[in-house]
């Protein structure tokens, strides 16, 4: 990429994020990085797309670790055009596919891991996705469990069925959601994968490579739907499990789902502080600034693949007012 073609992009980004006490921190969020794009979700890309985005990011931004960025925000010493890369949940492809790409670009990312799914576990939403992906036939009747009927003869139809079912299950009480998913498993006789999430050894590989391991609860519940004692136990247990694996402090936290006021509440922010985390991230859009709440740092993902659109999306995000819980 020619340097002269980057000058307008760099000038725009530097204008919005000059560094120091006026700096703005852009935190990117990712989940899965499959080697090849998933046919069900082709827009999410694969290794090639992620590699291209990381190359663009390091060309246009000063990419630093999230822990260093938190210190920079505290001290008013962020570099200009500061950015961080984070991952949520703990998928195996983070270690298998994303790690070599991050190392290629000399990026130190933070991985927020739901510790209860390590070593062969599977998140409820992935169970739903894999059930509908593998369901035989061209029609799926889930009306007996209140989830509707769906045509699934084509990939777009299966994708729409997945979005619909996930939307109906997402905010149910955990026990009720579990029973619905178990009923789906009983109805759809297919073999489900057991290798979607990382192993404890892969967590150690990331840690030993200089990546930051962050807390994401044990079982990824929506904290706002739990009693306070249960929510605190989820946050604390996840932290303890990860610390026992890496033999080092887990200093950063990500709220599951992460929408302020909807997925987590002020009580949960206080819990995270009380449990000894140094900072926490949400999924509210915007860029963090000095003086903002270090326990509600905003994050987003710019999906645009071209340089110009990527730059404009990042610049637009810097100007967005941050939503607080």
Structural overview:
The chain folds into 2 domains: 3-119 and 196-319, Glycoside hydrolase/deacetylase (TIM Barrel, Alpha-Beta Barrel); 124-187, no CATH class. By secondary structure, the chain is α/β, with parallel strands linked by helices. The protein starts with a helix and ends in a 6-residue tail after the last helix. The model is unreliable at 1-8 (pLDDT under 50). It has helices spanning 3-16, 47-60, 66-75, 92-104, 124-134, 155-169, 174-187, 200-208, 228-246, 266-274, 307-319, and strands spanning 24-30, 62-63, 82-89, 110-113, 139-141, 149-151, 212-215, 252-254, 279-281, 288-289. A hairpin with a 7-residue loop joins β5 (139-141) and β6.
Q: How many strand units?
A: 10
The second-level CATH architecture of the largest domain is Alpha-Beta Barrel
Derived from helix and strand composition plus strand pairing, the structural class reads alpha/beta
Strand content bin: 5-15%
Rg measurement, Å: 20 Å
Biggest sheet statistics:
6 strands, mixed
The name of the CATH superfamily of the largest domain reads Glycoside hydrolase/deacetylase
Give me the secondary-structure topology.
Layout: H1 3-16, E1 24-30, H2 47-60, E2 62-63, H3 66-75, E3 82-89, H4 92-104, E4 110-113, H5 124-134, E5 139-141, E6 149-151, H6 155-169, H7 174-187, H8 200-208, E7 212-215, H9 228-246, E8 252-254, H10 266-274, E9 279-281, E10 288-289, H11 307-319
Parallel strand pairs: 1-3, 2-3, 3-4, 4-7, 8-9
Antiparallel strand pairs: 1-10, 5-6
Helix pairs in contact: 1-11, 2-4, 5-6, 5-7, 9-10
